[in-house]
């Protein structure tokens, strides 16, 4: 659980104090003053263009891990780091992401850059603004300890973007700068499913979508939204489903009982083109339409296997069932009656 504070219209992180027990005696470690760059200078400061012996490299990694986890900003439950990249000639620093090990994912709170030559220095990196600053600059611009005006709860992180909640409303905050990216006005933010830096949101009972700059991608006019591939979203209006693209561009009007994404058309590099066929349901039966909303395969199938749907085999778009028989459907709507995997001719 993370707790943040609101002060003078910006949010600042408050490090949650946790006791770190000594493995040998079970006593609490004494508090020590925190400098801008904790840890003693490394005995060997490897240059970016110099190969690093494995033993020294391990010592450097251990020192970085220890120092970053010792930062007051990192004193929260399940804190952990990942060293993502090591120095190169073009990038003379270690790239480290830091956050929490959650049940099903790693929630990244911060990114750090650690320089080991010519001096050992830890810097904070802001993914949102693509900028870095020293720890002292970061703390001076976003003080950890300040008069508290209002508390709010951080639900999760994506990169250094925090999904926060207060008084039943959610929003997006830059965890480095404290800047409010999207105000806390949403009933729900679906931060578990982030696609192309866009996420589903609910405001005043209607569904829409915003991006990580806080801009609206889809207006809040839909009864329900579900993400589909290639920037399409399945939307529901008055009980009927269609597809919509960013900017509220209607791809398929809401006239079906259910709808799946388009699948089955791939370029020479096996990249999905966005065309092919989409399974749609009407009056209890499934059929297939093209991107012009023309019915290519009649409504005659009882089920469409969502797990198998759109597998990128040559020409295949769906695995269907009709009267107990199973078929593969190719991108032209032809059936393979055996129900086994067979490569169709393009």
Task: Give a short synopsis of this structure.
The chain has 346 residues and is mainly beta. Helix content is 7%, strand content 46%.
Secondary-structure element string: EEHEEEEEHEEEEEEEEEEEEEEEEEEEE
Distance between the termini: 53 Å
Round the mean pLDDT to the nearest integer and report it: 76
User: Can you summarize the main beta sheet?
Assistant: 6 strands, antiparallel
- How would you sum up the global shape? elongated
What percentage of amino acids are in beta strands?
Answer: over 45%
Number of strands: 27
Instruction: Detail the poorly predicted runs.
Output: 1-35, 39-53, 144-149, 309-313, 339-346
Total helical elements: 2
Classify the helix fraction into a percent range.
under 10%
> Widest sheet: strand order?
2-1-8-9-10-11
Rg of Cα set: 26 Å
Structural class: mainly beta
General description of the model:
The chain has a domain of 140 residues. The strands form six sheets. It has a six-stranded antiparallel β-sheet with strand order 2-1-8-9-10-11, with no helix packed on it. A five-stranded antiparallel β-sheet has the order 3-4-5-6-7. It starts with a strand and ends in a 10-residue tail after the last strand. The N terminus and C terminus are likely disordered. It is mainly β.
């Amino acid at each position: 659980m993370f707790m943040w504070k609101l002060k003078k219209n910006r949010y600042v992180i408050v490090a949650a104090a946790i006791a770190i027990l000594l493995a040998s005696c079970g006593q609490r470690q004494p508090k020590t003053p925190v400098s801008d760059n904790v840890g003693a200078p490394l005995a060997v400061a490897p240059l970016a263009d110099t190969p690093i012996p494995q033993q020294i490299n391990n010592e450097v990694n251990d020192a970085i891990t220890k120092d970053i986890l010792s930062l007051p900003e990192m004193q929260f439950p399940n804190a952990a780091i990942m060293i993502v990249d090591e120095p190169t000639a073009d990038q003379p620093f270690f790239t480290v992401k830091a956050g929490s090990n959650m049940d099903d994912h790693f929630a990244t709170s911060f990114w750090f850059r650690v320089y080991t030559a010519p001096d050992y220095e830890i810097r904070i990196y802001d993914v949102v603004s693509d900028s870095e600053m020293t720890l002292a600059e970061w703390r001076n611009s976003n003080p950890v300890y300040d008069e508290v005006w209002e508390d709010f709860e951080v639900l999760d992180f994506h990169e250094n973007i925090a999904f926060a909640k207060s008084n039943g409303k959610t929003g997006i905050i830059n965890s480095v700068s404290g800047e409010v990216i999207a105000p806390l006005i949403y009933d729900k933010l679906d931060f578990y499913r982030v696609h192309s830096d866009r996420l589903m949101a609910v405001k005043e009972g209607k569904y829409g979508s915003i991006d990580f700059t806080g801009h609206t991608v889809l207006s809040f006019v839909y009864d329900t939204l579900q993400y589909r591939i290639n920037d399409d979203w399945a939307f529901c209006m008055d009980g009927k489903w269609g597809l919509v693209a960013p900017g509220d561009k209607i791809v398929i009007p809401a006239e079906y009982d259910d709808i799946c994404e388009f699948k089955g058309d791939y370029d020479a590099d096996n990249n999905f083109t966005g065309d092919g066929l989409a399974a749609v349901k009407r009056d209890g039966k499934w059929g297939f339409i093209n991107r012009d909303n023309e019915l290519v395969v009649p409504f005659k199938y009882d089920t469409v296997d969502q797990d198998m749907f759109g597998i990128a085999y040559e020409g295949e778009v769906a695995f269907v069932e009709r009267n107990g028989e199973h078929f593969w459907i190719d991108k032209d709507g032809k059936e393979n009656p055996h129900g086994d995997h067979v490569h169709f001719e393009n």
